Amino acid sequence: MRVLIVEDEPNLGQQLKNTLEGAGYAIDLAVDGEEGHFLGSTENYDAVVLDLGLPEIDGLTVLDRWRKEGKTMPVLVLTARDSWSDKVAGLDAGADDYVAKPFQSEELIARLRALIRRASGNASSELTAGDIRLDTRSGKVTRAGEPVKLTAQEYKLLSYLLHHKGKVVSRTELIEHIYDQDFDRDSNTIEVFVTRIRKKLGQDVITTIRGLGYSLEDPDA
Question: Quick one: pLDDT at residue 20?
Answer without folding.
Answer: 95
